[in-house]
């Protein structure tokens, strides 16, 4: 059985991409991208040539089953969004849920996410907070 990686992408600065994220994207069998046009720029910059397929809020209900079947068949996949961590106000919940239901390992890499820097520089206490999505 394969594996699904959740791979955060930079929020505005390509230098924020982690070395591990680049390595994983080069090693997986295919990449699920929220917007293939935006992701193509990122992949080209880091010389990542792995196949990419569209996976966004308008098609994820149709692609989840075939994607899970590919992973169950032994392929590895990475899910990326336009910016930040997939599943945080971006597509990702459905594919992760179905992988978990099917006993597929899901690994989320640490990395870029927009709300953490916003909280840190806000000057507000940040020992407890609630994130209810982007406004």
UniProtKB/TrEMBL annotation:
* PANTHER family, per the entry: RIBOSOMAL RNA SMALL SUBUNIT METHYLTRANSFERASE I (PTHR46111)
Which keywords are on file for this protein? Methyltransferase, Transferase
Question: Which residues belong to the signal peptide in this entry?
Answer: none
Q: What is its EC number?
A: 2.1.1.198
Enzyme class label:
transferase
Tetrapyrrole methylase domain location: 3-125
Q: What is this protein called?
A: Ribosomal RNA small subunit methyltransferase I
Q: Does this UniProt record's set of keywords contain Transferase?
A: yes
Q: Which Pfam families is this protein grouped with?
A: TP_methylase
Q: Does the keyword Methyltransferase apply?
A: yes
Biological process terms from the Gene Ontology for this record are: methylation
**Molecular function terms from GO:** methyltransferase activity
